[in-house]
Amino acid sequence: MVPLQLFGESFSFAVKALVQNKLRSILSLLGITIGIFSIIAVFTFIDSFQLSLQKDVNNLGSNVIYVEKWPWTFGKDYPWWKYWDRPQPTMNEMDFIQKKCKSAEASAFTFGTNSTVEYLNSSVDNVSVNGISDDYNHVVNWVQIDKGRYFTPNEFSSGTNVAIIGCDVASGLFNNQDVIGKYIKVLGRKVLVVAVMKKQGESKLSNINMDVSVLMPANFERTLLDMHNMWMPKVLLVKAKEGVTNAQLISELRGIMRSVRELKPEQEDNFALNESSMVSKNFTSLFDIVAVIGWVIGGFSILVGGIGIANIMFVSVKERTSLIGIQKSLGAKNYFILMQFIIEAILLSLIGGLLGILVDGTAVLIGNANDMGLVLTFSNVMLGITISVLIGLISGFIPAYTASQLDPVEAIRSTY
Predict the structure, then answer these.
(1) In this structure, are 296 and 256 located in the same domain?
(2) Chain centroid to CA 193
(3) 162 with 85, same domain?
(4) Model-wide pTM > 0.90
């Protein structure tokens, strides 16, 4: 019963101290609250952004290699002029890779442009209109059908005028009415809508936003666009077989592409082999910097709060000196006095930390109501609680130790 009695009595003292000295307690807790809020807010942002990036990586395909004209990474001395005259990948190269690449599970080709899409008197501007080959949905994960169906093999091969549209395009054209089976006007031609994609949001790793996109069979869209246009982006996507690493696939693809483009051994590659990790790695150092900034800001606030709690505890010891003397004269041990004030300090700090976590949680709820996709993880909550307990323990130890070492006779004579 002694531990429970000790905790109960210490808790009672802490509550009385908070009630009796409201302003002093609030000002001291404010530092801890701001500090914990700052630290947890930073880690909440980092965790939420990392989860979003991981979703984008999964959509891009962590085991997918993108054969393009331009590389995704740009160094300090980026020789852009070397890439200007590079040829764009072609569908013929995709066919060659499908025949020769033993490390590939599937490959696809996509190209497109931005255009206005119309239905009767409604229109949506700046829509990404993309022609895709038949294995496109097997290579990437962002073709997620909400209503309707994917293109059939016959529609791909014959170049049928059919389309899959993004949810924002569907909303803008049809205002939440039935979409499937309607004809819309794309690039001056009527196309039949066979599906609507799920809402996904804009990718943070690329400029892909399937919500404002239209997908059509490549053999149909190539009849509407100038395939020799150097400004029109074209991408050849290759997915590795299970058990094949990206490095192995890149090595084989490099050999195949050099062969199909008839490059001599002394000539540099005139193509780029990109992968999602090239972009996501660039965020690692950014996250580290943001985390350090969060710790610095939160650390200063916690330091101020910890000093405030220590001051409160010294004042509390001074105010209860005579009571401590009476307790010790009645047989209270030093550890009993020590634990009283340590538990009080921890409780004070913990209240401040919980308030900081509560503010973070409220901010997350408000952010998610505005589709910000924030996540307050259990580990971050436990981090805040742990820091609060440690600050309370550190801040309260010296005042508590001072109280435990008081001479009972001198303490009883105190007139504070």
Answers:
(1) no
(2) 33
(3) yes
(4) no
